[in-house]
Structures are given as structure tokens and as C-alpha cells.
Amino acid sequence: MAQSPIDHKVINANPLADLTSSLYQDDTDIIYFDDEPSVGFNAYFSFGHRFFRNLSDFHLFVEMNYDLYRLIEITDDNYQSLVSIGIFHAI
After folding, report:
1. Fewest Cβ atoms nearer than 10 Å: which of 36, 37, 54, 55?
2. What does DSSP assign to residue 3?
3. How far apart (Å, rounded) are the C-alpha atoms in residues 51 and 42?
4. Nearest Cα to 82, choosing from 41, 31, 36?
5. 41 within 8 A of 80, measured Cβ to Cβ
6. How many whole angstroms separate alpha carbon 28 and alpha carbon 73?
7. For residues 6 and 55, what is the distance between their CA atoms, to the nearest angstrom?
8. Which residue range forms the structural domain that includes residue 34?
9. Helix, strand, coil proportions of the chain in percent (round to 5)?
10. 2 in a domain, yes or no?
11. How far is Cα 9 from Cα 88, in angstroms, rounded to an integer?
12. What DSSP state is assigned to residue 76?
């Protein structure tokens, strides 16, 4: 598996549990992302989708724009549940 973009803040868990968890406060943004090797990073924010050409650009954007956040990697295992809760609806 590829190295996580920001290991100490990446959560690879059930997105339904993550969205309803009492551990998340209203001021914590959840950012969903996937790594397309040799292409770049897709990231899904509350405002919509953004593409980053490389890990450095993604990391810089997140660190500069968010104080509290959780990263959830989009995987084959959680993709359908993300679709069902509407993560990609605004895209």
C-alpha cells in the first residue's frame, strides 16, 4: 500500500461511523481523498472536488487551509458506502 499523505492524520475507517462519531466536532472538517498513482490526488472537501498533481501540493493546501481535519482515504472497500451517503453528490 502506498504511504499515506499525512500519516498522523489519516483515518482509514468506515466513513458512516466517521461521520456520525461523537469524536468529530462541528469544527473538524472531513477530507476524502484517493491517490491515483502517476496521476495525482483527488480530494473531496465540503466545498467540492479538487485535483492535486502531487502529494506536496495536497499536503500544503490542507495544512494551509485547515486547522482541524480528518483525512479518509477512498478505497475499493469504502467507495460504495461513500456514494450512498452522498460524498460525491456535488461533483
Report:
1. 37
2. P
3. 5
4. 31
5. no
6. 16
7. 9
8. 7-84
9. 30, 30, 45
10. no
11. 22
12. T
- Joined together, the cell numbers standing for residue 57 give 501540493
**76 domain residue, yes or no:** yes
Could you give the number of structural domains in the chain?
A: 1
- 20, three cell numbers: 456520525
Residue 90 lies in a domain: no
Residue 1 resides in a domain: no
Number of C-alpha atoms within 13 angstroms, CB side, residue 7? 3
**Which set of grid coordinates corresponds to residue 85?**
451517503
Full pLDDT tens readout for the chain, 91 residues: 444 444 434 444 444 444 444 444 566 889 999 999 999 999 999 888 999 999 899 999 999 999 889 999 999 999 999 999 888 876 5
Query: Residue holding cell 461511523?
Result: 17
3-state secondary structure 29-60: EEEEEEEECCCEEEEEECCEEEEECCHHHHHH
